[in-house]
Structure formats: structure tokens, C-alpha cells
Design a protein that fits this description.
This protein is mainly alpha-helical. It is built from 3 helices and no strands. The chain has helices spanning 8-19, 24-31, 35-38.
């Protein structure tokens, strides 16, 4: 797994995944961040 991303790229991917209907838990897993960070 790749290291976690930070900054603008992470924000763009976060928004994209949520708009696609992925769960917050799945988004966190894909981005390598805590689920609590997504909330």
C-alpha cells in the first residue's frame, strides 16, 4: 500500500470517492487515513 497522501490531492480524491457513493470507511481505506479523518 502507498503511504498516505496529504494536501490538495487527498482532498480532491476524498470528494471524488464520496461523490461516487463509496462509504466513508472505504474512502479512508483507499486513502490510507483514519475513518475519523473523513468525518
Amino acid at each position: 500500500m502507498e503511504p498516505p497522501m496529504y494536501g490538495r490531492e487527498q482532498q480532491v480524491l476524498l470528494r471524488h470517492y464520496l461523490e461516487q457513493g463509496l462509504s466513508k470507511a472505504e474512502v479512508a481505506k483507499r486513502l490510507g487515513i483514519s475513518r475519523r479523518t473523513v468525518y
